[in-house]
Amino acid sequence: MTLRFIAKDPNTNGDNCPTVWVDEKTQDLVIQGWRADSETEKECLETGRIPDTEAVVRLPARMVAAIREACDVADGPAVH
Fold it and tell me: Domain boundaries in the chain?
């Protein structure tokens, strides 16, 4: 696996913060975020169960630009 670092939360001190990467082999987004609180998780469970191999994470809205950049990287160059 080759992860391409995209960004960390811009309002952080750089430690233990939400981060976004792109797996350059699979184009998957890899996201580190805050573990969702029980109320958020409960609401997510209304849509369906959360398998043991998955987690609900929360990223601050200020990371939207980083997520967009990661999506652009994962999409690769546009074909015209």
Answer: 3-75
